[in-house]
Amino acid sequence: MPSAQYLDSLFNLNGKVAVVIGGTGELCGAMAEGLAGAGAEVVLVGRNEEKAKARLAKITDAGGKGYFVAAEASSKKAIEDLLATVLQRSGKVDIVVNGAGVNSATPYLEIPEDEFDRIMNINLKGVFLGCQIFGKYLVERGEGGSIINLGSMSGVIPLSRVFTYSASKAAVHNLSKNLAREWAEKNVRVNILVPGFFPAEQNRKVLTPDRIASIMGHTPMKRFGEANELVGATLLMASDAGKFITGAEIIVDGGYHAMTI
After folding, report:
1. How far is CA 52 from CA 60, 67, 77, 81, 191, in A?
2. Residue 202 has what pLDDT?
3. Fewer CB within 10 Å of terminal CB in the chain, N or C?
């Protein structure tokens, strides 16, 4: 079998429908481009239609296909309506990415209750709802599927300055593993994509010069990640190449997690 044909048999997503919640952001937007490049019809979900248009233009220019649906990740009705919209327009869902997220570097003793609630609602409740609503559909459909939840290195190793964010992401890791166990016999796979340090909208305010120096000193590759470097791991978890992978934390961090002193 020619190598291109062999790789295609493992990673192609032709005929699949991928819903990317948070797809208007930098990291999930790059993941969406990768899914579209592998053949999936991609549904970008977020609040900013202008950002979606720019991403969809890249997808269509590369020969892919997709569309935008506005939705609030932390609203149950919005996610239920999202599923209904996608089923009406695309006929099915095969892959779900739960990637909406926000961050804050407020000192712990100064964190206001409304900030805590906002971060938990988007980072944790959003994943909870995405898994519950789309997971129910995938389980009941009986044809399997792939759910990819965006975790964080701070969900594996607590990071300083981002207390609520770290707590929310640790819960995402725990929930994802629990659901992987729950739905394994239904062939609905649930995995966690764990980015290291990738400059994106939600963390730019946190990346002060001293913080950057600390990160580089703890990253063997001595650089930040680039959004498109998440695509390989995304395709592994979404495609038949990863059909026996569930409950896994796939870390993409330039060696950050392997560094001690």
Report:
1. 12, 8, 21, 19, 25
2. 57
3. C
CA pair distance 21, 83, nearest whole angstrom: 11
CA 42/CA 64 separation, integer angstroms: 8
CB contact set of 217 (below 8 Å; sequence gap of 6+): none
Residues classed as catalytic: 165
Give the chain's residues under pLDDT 50.
Answer: none
Q: What angle do CA 153, 155, 156 make, to 5 degrees?
A: 65
Q: Which tokens belong to 172? A: 């995402």
Q: Which tokens sit at 165?
A: 């964010």
C-alpha closest to that of 250 among 259, 239, 242: 242
Q: What is the pLDDT of residue 209?
A: 84
